[in-house]
Amino acid sequence: MANILLFFHVIFSGLLLSVSSRGPVYRPPPVEQLTNRFPHIPITQGMSTLFGSSNIHVKGNGSYADIVLDKISGSGLISKNRYYHGFFSAAIKLPTGFTSGVVFAFYMSNADLFPHNHDEIDFELLGHEKRRQWVLQTNMYGNGSVKTGREEKVYLWFDPTQQFHQYTILWNNHHIVFLVDNIPVREVIHNQAVSSVYPSKPMSLYATIWDASEWATHGGKYAVNYKYAPFVASMGELEIEGCSMQKTSSPSMATAGCSKNATGSSSLDPVEGKEYATLSKQQVVGLNWVRRKHMFYSYCKDTSRYKMMPAECGAQ
Q1: Would residue 32 show up in a list of annotated catalytic residues for this protein?
Q2: Which residues contact 256 (CB under 8 A, 6 or more apart)?
Q3: b/e map 251-283, b = 16+ CB within 10 Å
Q4: Quick check: is 312 catalytic?
C-alpha cells in the first residue's frame, strides 16, 4: 500500500509542475520567428532616460537594463527617434512576488507632441494580487480617441517573472499586430471602420514601470504594497526597425519625411512589404489559439460598458 501511495504522490506532484496558478499551462503552436529577421541593438543606442534615472541600471555594455519601481519613484526609457510604422520588440522579465498595482508598459505614443489628438499602441503588463500571474493588456488609440478604450486582456501561458520573453509591436499601413514570443495575441486591421482612430502619426517607443494602484488590479481594489519593493523589470534584445524621424518639438515637422531605418538600409519602411501585410496561416492559428484559450476580456464584448459597440467591433 505504501508503494502505491508513493506512486500516486509522484504522479500527482509531476502533474502540478504543468499547472499554473490559474490552470493548465498550454504549449503554443509553432509560428514564424519574426524577431529573428531584425538585429538586436543596445538599449543605450536606441533609448535614453525618460524619468527616474536613479532607478535605471544599464548592464552588459548597454545591451540590457533594469528599470525599477520603489517607494520614491518609478522609471522609464524613451526612444531617441520617432517612428512612422515599423517593428519594435524587446525581451522582458517582470518583477516577482506580490505585484498588485504595478504596471510595466512597453508602448508607442506621441502625446508629447499631440496632447489633444495623440496616437498610442500599448502593451501594459498588470501586476496581480496574491502572487498570481501578471495580466497582459493591449490597447490602441488614434487621433485622440481616448474616450473609447479598446482594451483586451489575456492570461499569459508562461511565468513572465522567471525568464525573458519577447513582446513585439508590428505597425504598418495594413494592420497593427501585438505579438508575445512571436505568437500574435491581437491584430487590428486597418479597414474603413477603424480608419479614423488608426494611429497615423510618428510615435516614440517607451518602456516604463510605475504605480497604477488606482486602476491596475481589479479596478484599483489592490494597491501597490511597498513592503515587497523594489519591483525590478529587466529588458534587452531591443529591436527597433522603422521609418525613423529625428526628434523635434514642432508637430508640423514631426509628420514630414523619413530618414533611413536603424540599419541604414535603403528601405524607408521595413515592414511595408507583402510578407507583413497579412498574417500567415501559422500566425492565424497562433492568434486563434491565444484568443480561444487565454483571452478573458475584450472591449468588443463588454455590453455593460458600451450600449453601442465601436464600429470596428463588427468589422474585424
Answers
A1: no
A2: none
A3: eeebbeeeeebbeeeeebbbbeeeebeebeeeb
A4: no
Q: Which is nearest to 217 in space by CA: 173, 165, 159, 153?
A: 153
Q: Which residue type is seen at 112?
A: D
Q: CB-based contacts of 83: which residues, under 8 Å, 6+ apart?
A: 108, 202, 203, 204, 205, 240, 242, 243, 244, 245
Match 508513493 to its residue by C-alpha cell.
6
Distance CA 242, CA 261 (A): 5
- The DSSP line for the chain is -HHHHHHHHHHHHHHHTTB-SSSBPPPPPP---GGGGS--B-HHHHEEEEE-GGGEEEEGGGTEEEEEE-SS--EEEEESSEEEEEEEEEEEEPPPS--TTEEEEEEEE-TTT-TTS--EEEEEEEP-STTPPPEEEEEEE-TT-TTS---EEEE-SS-TTTS-EEEEEEE-SSEEEEEETTEEEEEEE--TTTGGGS--S-BEEEEEEEE-TTTTTGGGTS---GGG--EEEEEEEEEEEEEEE---S-HHHHTS--B--TT--S-S-TT-SGGGTS--HHHHHHHHHHHHHTEEEEGGG-TTT-SS--GGGGT-
Identify the band that residue 253 occupies on the pLDDT scale cut at 50, 70 and 90.
low
Which of 32, 124, 241, 312 is an active site residue? 124
Rounded to whole angstroms, the Cα distance separating 57 from 55 reads: 6
User: Is residue 22 predicted with pLDDT exceeding 90?
Assistant: no
184 has a pLDDT exceeding 90: yes
Q: Is pLDDT larger for residue 235 or for residue 131?
A: 235
Out of 120, 152, 239, 312, pick the active-site residue: 120
Chain Cα centroid distance, residue 259: 26
